[in-house]
Amino acid sequence: MSSPTIPQAVYVFEAPVRLWHWVHTFSFLTLAATGYLIAHPLPSIGGEASDHFLMGNLRLIHFVAAWFFAVGFAVRIYWALVGNRYAREIFYLPVWRGAWWKGLFHEMAYYLFLTREQPPFLGHNPLAQTAMFFLNTLMTLFMIATGFALYSEGLGPGSWADRAFGWVLPLVGGGEATQNWHELGMWIMLAFAIIHIYMAVRADIFGRQSSVSAMIGGWRSFRR
Amino acid sequence: MSTEPTFYEILRRQGITRRKFLKFCSLTAASLGLAPEFAGTIAHALETKPRVPVIWLHGLECTCCTESFIRSGHPLAADVILSMISLDYDDTLMAAAGYQAEEILEQTIAKHDGNYILACEGNPPLNEEGMYCIQAGRPYVEKLRRMAAHSKAIIAWGTCASWGCVQAAKPNPTRATPIHKVVTDKPVIKVPGCPPIAEVMTGVITYILTFDRLPELDRLGRPKMFYGRRLHDKCYRRAHFDAGQFVERFDDEGARKGYCLYKMGCKGPTTHNACSTMEWNGGLSWPVKSGHGCLGCAEEDFWDRGSFYTPTTNLNVPGGVEVTADQVGKVIAGAAAAGVAAHATVSVVSRLVRGGKGRDEGGSSNE
Ligand code: HEM
Ligand code: HEM
Ligand code: SF4
Ligand code: SF4
């Protein structure tokens, strides 16, 4: 959809998408922090066991954040179906479109400092879209599946979690393997988050289109 | 009906009194988690049902399952069950030997086709057409297949028969293979553990023999009554886990106080077995009670995950690379952070070089 004249501002991120983005961000950060402390507990504390509930609380926070994370994503999937065209972008890659590939290579060249030219994209640029699809959308599904599978071990056989997600455990190779891959998933999403936050802030400083403010107010504005 | 003697007749013949017999029935009902009135059901079944023959085969293994079984915590259980299943064939325990012993297998097939229980300890190696385990001049895998084809159901004793265990450790030169991957057309009940707890073994076998059906199995084919929960869910040190009180070294204050062994690599949080409830050697103790973490011996691949003494273990990526999620993850996240730092530096420098006219140029839209 090449439009020679670029409007001043376009409403790109609808309210549910913005709301989800921040729920997703904060639940992810909470899950990563508590998850890391589950895998690597803090130094042992003394006293009576009945006076403390440190690991118990960390796990509780992990599970509460997990519900925000999972329900948030379910709402986001619903919004992809009913929302505007930009709401669908993180769920598929238009690999059948030549222009998309051109954009992808152009963005790579741009981030490798091979060109300073940056064509505007109303939604996500193809490079960001690719990263979001693999490192966020698919990883989010993976974390929910493995997370609730681990959760089902606590609830026990026959529980709803066991019936809905128990099958994941043997598929991954048992509880221990599931825990290990669940933890690797955290690192992968963390790497995505580091690059993603950098790119978002950088785009505001160097780029020609608004970025962080677009994810807050919804409007993507263009400079010059 | 059948001319076969009932369980009860055999027990009496072995000199077991009725009083002992009834005691055994209530003991078994309790260990199976059944209500007290089931003791009567068990007694009735044993009095009226003809004895079901059990053939016990041994493949690649260390015989620890048999060792566990014959040391059943309650001497009564050991007595009763040994006479009950009578082990028409068991390499380790039978009196017969040589041709006489192998004869029994053919006789069992002839007399009880489709009616006997096949209990497998150990597993068959498949490489070199099974030549790594030869019994009576033939590869063990052939004997297993033949006996399995005529059996009613199969019990896979221990982690060898259920998952492969150490003889299947990478790179598994003999291709030792668990039973359910060799026999695919018969129900296989997995009773994993290295070895399984004696009372679990006797419980499973009594259940099958008395009720004449298989116990309820979980998704992986393990009896739910013994393998339904993780050790961690029933561990008496769980309060210390929830509190955040851990043993950090085997000789520290926490170890003396009996804190949780999670940081010492305890695999209780991912291991399904009955150790934390039934314990070992007649309820005497179990690893965590003696101050050492669980190794996860009842779980698939427990032998191939690297250290027993760290909470996070190897990912087992295909290709035999031994890395943990932490090792891979720190490299990925570290590379991301380093890349971001380098990219930011170049961005700023190139902007300065361009003399403040920093913004990128436009281009034709790609949308
Ligand atoms: C991006 C999201 C998530 C991250 C980064 C994350 C991170 C982690 C980490 C690092 C661990 C420790 C694993 C280990 O012991 O090696 C963990 C454990 C766990 N997570 Fe998550 N997790 C996420 C989502 C979820 C979700 C959606 C659930 C669903 C309920 C969940 C449930 C669990 C459970 C049950 C455990 C095991 C806790 C225990 O062993 O006590 N996680 N998580
Ligand atoms: C403070 C931290 C963050 C900031 C400032 C931020 C900023 C942004 C911005 C500006 C966009 C719009 C990108 C565009 O213009 O194309 C965006 C989109 C997105 N961000 Fe973040 N982000 C943050 C944290 C995260 C984290 C931690 C995650 C994932 C774990 C994440 C996942 C996403 C996803 C999936 C999208 C696409 C949204 C959609 O199209 O539905 N963000 N973020
Ligand atoms: S000792 Fe092991 S099984 Fe017991 S609470 Fe700690 S981690 Fe769980
Ligand atoms: S505590 Fe763990 S390693 Fe020890 S016997 Fe039980 S399941 Fe096996």
Question: What is the fold's blueprint, element by element?
Answer:
The complex is a heterodimer of chains A (224) and B (367).
Chain A: E1 9-11, H1 15-39, H2 54-82, H3 98-111, H4 126-155, H5 160-165, H6 168-172, H7 175-206, H8 212-217, E2 219-221
Antiparallel strand pairs in A: 1-2
Helix pairs in contact in A: 1-2, 1-7, 2-4, 4-7
Chain B: H1 7-13, H2 18-31, H3 38-48, E1 54-58, H4 64-69, H5 75-85, E2 89-90, H6 98-112, E3 117-121, E4 134-135, E5 138-139, H7 140-149, E6 153-157, H8 158-163, E7 188-191, H9 198-211, H10 224-227, H11 238-243, H12 253-257, H13 275-278, H14 325-353
Parallel strand pairs in B: 1-2, 1-3, 3-6, 6-7
Antiparallel strand pairs in B: 4-5
Helix pairs in contact in B: 1-5, 2-3
Bound molecules: protoporphyrin IX containing FE (2 copies) and iron/sulfur cluster (SF4) (2 copies).
Task: Provide a descriptive summary of the structure in words.
The complex is a heterodimer of chains A (224) and B (367). By secondary structure, chain A is mainly α. Chain A has one domain (9-40, 51-221): Fumarate Reductase Cytochrome B subunit, CATH 1.20.950.20. Chain A contains 8 helices and 2 strands. A two-stranded antiparallel sheet of chain A has the order 1-2. In chain A, helix 1 runs antiparallel to helix 2 and helix 4 packs antiparallel against helix 7. The mean pLDDT of chain A is 93. Chain B has 367 residues and is an alpha/beta fold. In chain B, helix 1 packs across helix 5 (75-85) and helix 2 (18-31) packs across helix 3 (38-48). The model of chain B is unreliable at 363-367 (pLDDT under 50). Chain B is 39% helix and 7% strand. Chain B is globular. Chain B has a 5-stranded parallel beta sheet with strand order 2-1-3-6-7, with helices on both faces. The chains are: A mainly alpha (224), B alpha/beta (367). The interface between A and B is large, with 72 and 69 residues. The structure holds protoporphyrin IX containing FE (HEM) (2 copies) and iron/sulfur cluster (2 copies). One protoporphyrin IX containing FE binds at residues 28, 31-32, 35-36, 38-39, 59, 62-63, 66, 69-70, 143-144, 147-148, 150-151, 179, 182-183, 186, 189 of chain A.
